[in-house]
Amino acid sequence: xxAAKKWLSIPQNVREMLVKNVFCSNCGVTEIVKYTIExxxxxxxxxxxxxxxxxxxxxxxx
Length: 62
Known about the structure:
By secondary structure, the chain is of the alpha+beta class. It has two helices and five strands.
């Protein structure tokens, strides 16, 4: 729940930028889809799928 609060505290335009700037080992920079927000060791983490190929990707929200 804390990770979701931190995520929602980020301005909408910055959240959109973060979602569209995720690295996929297959496609390079891509967009994350079907993601969840989880509490990481140091910061929230988005975990989901690459929009292009469907592989699992993650993004630390730093």
